[in-house]
Write a structure and sequence with these properties.
Layout: E1 3-4, H1 7-29, E2 34-40, H2 44-59, E3 63-69, H3 75-87, E4 93-96, H4 106-111, H5 124-131, H6 140-151, E5 160-164, H7 171-180, E6 184-188, H8 195-199, E7 204-207, E8 225-228, E9 250-251, H9 258-278
Parallel strand pairs: 1-9, 2-3, 2-4, 5-6, 5-7, 7-8, 8-9
Helix pairs in contact: 1-9, 2-9, 6-7, 6-9
The chain binds NADP nicotinamide-adenine-dinucleotide phosphate.
NADP nicotinamide-adenine-dinucleotide phosphate is lined by residues 141, 164-167, 169-171, 188-192, 195, 208-210, 229-231, 238, 258-259, 262.
């Protein structure tokens, strides 16, 4: 049986560490760390994700400030909100929930977040710095995956890592993080030819496709480490995990794998930003 990379358990451990850091920070700074969350539009899944992030803040006694903007919000209006949060000394981190309605220039909005408050790791500057191995907050989902792999001492150096998906918040930063750790990285996407032939060679596979159970059991090599970043209604991911539990050496369950690690990373990076602001 494959080892379960238990993101839920690790996130709990991380939260207890953060709770202590929040207490210490609050004594020293005379205020609590604050994460501002921005939800634009009325997508129910996005509303749920924002709520889960606010709940995580509450569990560690961190403050969260929820900003909700209507579907018809313009890019200029959103930029104004972000600028005022950048200027607000009480705010340590800014989370703009992806995706924003299609009428908004999401890239411009992400890139208007001040680097020191980019705790979700969404700016081009942050991506560039992280890719170059410079200090930056990593994109929360792939950075959470790296924490999970490290916790379970999964060897990355020299391994063939196949990342299926190349989105700005997941696939691309994931690939760079693995590359920085000396994995040999292949990035696959919707134009990739013979995808199963490629994934079958992977020592480590990351599913970041956004399609339920898209990656099949027979696309995965015996003994591979399987990371499923996907999440879909019904609690299934992007990989047919039932088909690999006897075959993989380790895998992230859905739910309880990557999802909790994303949130734990977001609050960790908010904590770091708060600590930086008074050091
Ligand atoms: P996305 O922006 O839709 O990107 C999907 C990627 O998959 C794209 O790069 C796309 O290629 C690629 N793809 C689509 N069809 C493919 C195919 N037939 N063969 C190979 N590649 C294909 O999605 P995302 O935001 O990265 O999210 C991916 C998954 O992760 C989703 O299930 C999402 O729910 C989940 N997610 C989870 C968390 C978490 O906290 N757990 C956070 C973020 C996302 P092209 O670039 O060529 O279009």
């Amino acid at each position: 049986m494959a080892k379960i990379l238990d993101g839920k358990a690790l996130a709990k451990l991380i939260e207890s560490d953060i709770a202590v850091r929040v207490e210490n920070y609050s004594k020293k700074a005379g205020k609590t760390p604050l994460l501002a969350t921005i939800l634009v539009g009325s997508d129910p899944a996005s509303a749920t994700y924002v709520k889960m992030k606010a709940n995580a803040c509450a569990r560690v006694s961190m403050q969260s400030r929820r900003i909700e903007l209507g579907e018809e919000t313009t890019t200029a209006e959103l930029l104004n909100v972000i600028h005022s949060l950048n200027e607000d000394a009480a705010v340590n981190g800014i989370l703009l929930q992806h995706p924003v309605p299609s009428g908004i220039d999401e890239r411009e909005a992400f890139d208007s977040i001040a680097s020191q408050k980019d705790v979700d790791g969404v700016t081009c500057r942050g991506f560039g710095r992280m890719s170059m191995g410079e200090a930056a907050y990593g994109s929360a989902t792939p950075a959470g995956i790296m924490k999970l792999l490290d916790h379970y001492e999964i060897e990355l150096e020299g391994k063939l890592a196949v990342v299926v998906g190349r989105s700005p918040i997941l696939g691309k930063p994931m690939a760079m993080m693995l590359l920085n750790r000396n994995a040999t990285v292949v990035i696959c996407h919707s134009r990739t030819k013979n995808l199963p032939d490629i994934t079958r060679q992977a020592d480590l596979i990351v599913g970041a496709v956004g399609k339920p159970k898209f990656i099949k059991g027979d696309w995965i090599k015996e003994g591979a480490v399987v990371v499923d970043a996907g999440y879909h209604p019904g609690g299934v991911g992007d990989i047919d995990l039932e088909a690999i539990t006897d075959k993989a050496s380790a895998y992230t369950p859905v739910p309880g794998g990557v999802g909790p690690m994303t949130i734990a990373t977001l609050i960790t990076q908010t904590m770091e930003s708060a600590e930086q602001s008074i050091s």
